[in-house]
Amino acid sequence: MPLTEPYDDHLPPEDRSDAAREAGEVGADAVDDPEGAGAAPEPEPVLPEPVRQRIVALTAAVLPGLPGDEVPVPLRRVAKFAPNRRARLGAPAIAAQLTADPLFRQRVTARVLADAGDLGAAVVEGTAPAAADPVEVAALAYLARPRGWRDLIEASGAAVRAEAESAVIAELVREAEQRATRAEHDRAVARVEAEKLRDELARVREELGQLREESRQLARTLRETQARERRANELLATERGRAARATADADAELRRARARLAEAEAAVGAARTSAKEARSVDDARLWLLLETIGQAAVGLRRELALDPVDKLPADFVAETSADQPGAVSGAATRARDTDDPARLDQLLALPRAHLVVDGYNVTKRGFGEMSLEQQRKRLIGGLGGIAAQTGDEVTVVFDGAERIPGLPPAPRGVRVLFSRKGETADELIRRLVRAEPPGRPVVVISSDREVADGVRRHGAYPLGADSLLRRLARS
Prior knowledge:
Elements: H1 13-30, H2 49-62, H3 73-79, H4 83-89, H5 91-100, H6 102-116, H7 118-124, H8 134-144, H9 149-304, H10 313-321, H11 330-337, H12 341-348, E1 354-358, H13 359-367, H14 372-390, E2 393-398, E3 414-418, H15 425-435, E4 442-445, H16 449-457, E5 461-463, H17 465-474
Parallel strand pairs: 1-2, 1-4, 2-3, 4-5
Helix pairs in contact: 1-6, 2-8, 6-7, 7-8, 8-9, 12-17, 13-14, 13-17
């Protein structure tokens, strides 16, 4: 391939004539080639790739040594590159300038020939030493362009191609030798495997003989087993006949038992019908009594003509006592009542009352100097006494993601609960209150105002922690 694409056709006519004239002058000064004087320029020869790379490398090596005004403008930036980057990155620009600028090529050739020494002198004379590298000779010939330089480049290309072909042939020979070595190895492995297979075949034949002997013994054993099986089948048939007769007798007995069972079930059904009729009569009497009481209450309310009132009696008492000196307001009275143990006794005396206790709220208020374990034990023990005295249902709630290990068994009548993970004891108390049926007395012990307000909306009776503490101290 040419060193680069010629671009003289893209120059103006006057530039092309100047470039041609300059090229002729440089060629006459570099080499004495009278045959080329006045002749039309020949196209650039096709350079082998190694020759083209060597030309660019030689030019890149001498490029920094040229004076700044002798370096073409396109190559001035390339001349500043590092040596290892100059030939690699500036190759296109260098090749283009060598093709288009004969004067620049002449300057580069002078320095390259000076560095080449005897080999450069021989190439200028048109000869190539036999021991010289053909690529180096072709590169110098391209730059110096002595008589017969195209032949030198062609000879270099042939030498390069011959070397490439020799390398390919050597590689093919090496691969063939490797394949022959592998084949020899495979044959040796195959011989070893064949020996192993022959040994394995002998072992298999020996085992086959043993298996045949075992087969004959098993055949004798099978014949004996079949004879015993025939005798066993005969005995089994006899026993089956006996079992069939026993089964028939058992079926007859079962049918008689089922008949007796049917008679007994009929008698039980008649008794249940009679009991149901008697219960229906009692239910009718009870319903009639309750209906009579309800209608009597409705008639009494209608006869008395009682209208709904806006104020409760406690409101009237609060209004009358507000003007008295030293009187206590209604809110303070209610706050004091919530800590009154007598009020707690009154509520626990109601039938089927349920006492719900906010555990840590009470223990930290009454005996917070103790450890949590001692607080729980003391509170649970006191609640056990209350449950035994009143017979009411008692539930104590503690904060905690899971049951604490080491907790003693709860007393009879006391339920101990711990809130689940992500839930507080307050939320668990509200859920317990909501779960109770309307009308059942539920007493909640907690000094937390939010807990008290929440359970009050659901019909429970909130009392302060002091009321329970006083009740426990009295016990």
